[in-house]
Amino acid sequence: MVTWLLIGRYFLTRRVAWIAVGAVALLVMMVVVVLSVMSGLLEDTRRRNHGWAGDVVVRRESLVGFAGYEEFIEALAGVPEVAAATPVIRTFGLVGPTGEAVQVYGVRLGEFCEATGFQQALHWQRQSAQPTFEAPARGYVRAGGEALTEEQRRRGFIAGSLLAAARYTGRPAKSELAGLRRQGLAPGGHVGWPLTVFGLTGQGTLAGSGVGEQRTFWYVDDADTGLVDVDMSAMYVDFEELAKLCYMDGAAGGARRANEVRVKLAEGVPLERGRAAAAAAWRRWAAARPAGAAADDVKIETWKEYRRNEIAPAERERSLMIVVFAMIGLVAVFIVFAIFYMIVTQKIRDLGVLKSVGGSGWQAGRIFLGYGVLVGLAGALVGTAAGAWVVQHSNELEGWLGVKLWDPEVYAIERIPDAVDWRQAGVIGLVAVAASVAGAALPAWRAARLEVVEALRVE
Asked: How many CB atoms neighbour CB 72 within 10 A?
């Protein structure tokens, strides 16, 4: 007890102690801020990808797709782990006279919104009970002012937000699209998009005319998924309309085909268990079909596997930051070591007196180890509190400083993540204490090994 009182008294009355505490606190604050923001960005990336992809994706990479998707979805309906499933056609297309390349998705919009979080990305139909591709009856073609025909109204499309901005304004920026809405852009209220796609037979050869099939589609909504690669290129149209254009509707005697089946798992079902259940359903369904009727290169993936190329960079960036700050943490060890070594050098005579009156080497060394614990605890508490405050007020600080860390037009980040992972912050604090003790260990060992005669023989 006396030892700790001495440590506390010295700790409170020496400026050099506060220098050590300040160094540790600064490093802890930096690590808490950076890792909290990076963890928030990673979690946001995962959430956005999950919302767009659904839980499990059954897909064939070939644009030919696979036949029998309707029967397979019926088979999935009997799997208790599955709550919903919907087919998707995925192909490439060319838009407009310049032939701008887009990724075209044919979806059954109601089912697609049920199986994924897609409806939350829509602008006009986010709160709609029945999202639809059908343009409103009072829509018009701005170029001529004439009303859309019934056939035209059924050929609506939803554009990725950045693609719509680029097509309508020449600049892929959400602010431009918002300005266009204020000027009158509304469902059915703009010129159509001529879309050209190239159909394929079940054998992978060009179908139809061989030079592409063209149909004009009309704007009914735009989708802001927060995924730049998707929002820059995606155009969503009705599943049946795209199936006809791609010759995947079975009208020419072939089988109806799709490229993907998006699956939503039942509440509480673990992701890997759901994927395994869907894979088992596929194997049972494929085994019951005639030989060669089921594609053998179909993949059954979780959303993490399906979007791994987009999630992996964010995970690597966070891991890299952890490594970088682990190396920076060595600075704290060195600072504490240098300060404590200096203290031992200055207090050699005092240590000699302590040992001459019966103090042991362990008692002398314990003083400096305890000092290291106090420095680490004080620095960890101050640094964690300061870091948490900075994280929680990061968006306000960005406004006060007039600095944009991430341009939302470029990075699709509306707000800096401002939630603190307290579990992670606690680990950082414990590491700071351990680093301080590690820095004090060698000076403590020197103090413990000091001989009385040598200690008292100081010029």
From this structure: 25
Of 310, 128, 312, 127, nearest to 231 by C-alpha is: 310
The whole-angstrom distance between residue 242's C-alpha and the CA centroid of its chain comes to: 30
Give me the percent of the chain exceeding a pLDDT of 70: 79
Mark which of 253, 273, 297 sits at the end of a domain.
Answer: 297
Distance of CA 152 to the CA centre of its chain: 38
DSSP state of 120: G
pTM equals 0.80
Q: Torsions phi, psi of 102, nearest 5?
A: -135, 160
CA end-to-end distance (rounded Å), the chain: 32
Domain containing 212: what range? 61-297
Residue 25 falls within a domain, yes or no? yes
- The verdict on residue 334 lying in a domain is yes
Q: Are 137 and 105 part of one and the same domain?
A: yes
End of a domain among 239, 269, 297?
Answer: 297
> What is the average per-residue pLDDT within 394-413?
67
Count Cβ atoms within 10 A of the Cβ of residue 386 and give its class: 0-12 exposed, 13-18 middle, 19 or more buried.
Answer: middle
- Residues 219 and 155 reside in one and the same domain: yes
Q: Note whether 207 and 340 are same-domain residues.
A: no
Both tokens of 88, joined, read 């998707």
Q: Look at the block and give the residue holding tokens 């930051």.
A: 321
CB-based contact 219:161 (threshold 8 Å) = no
- Whether residues 285 and 324 share a domain: the answer is no
The SS3 assignment for 294 reads coil
For 83-108, what is the mean pLDDT? Answer: 92
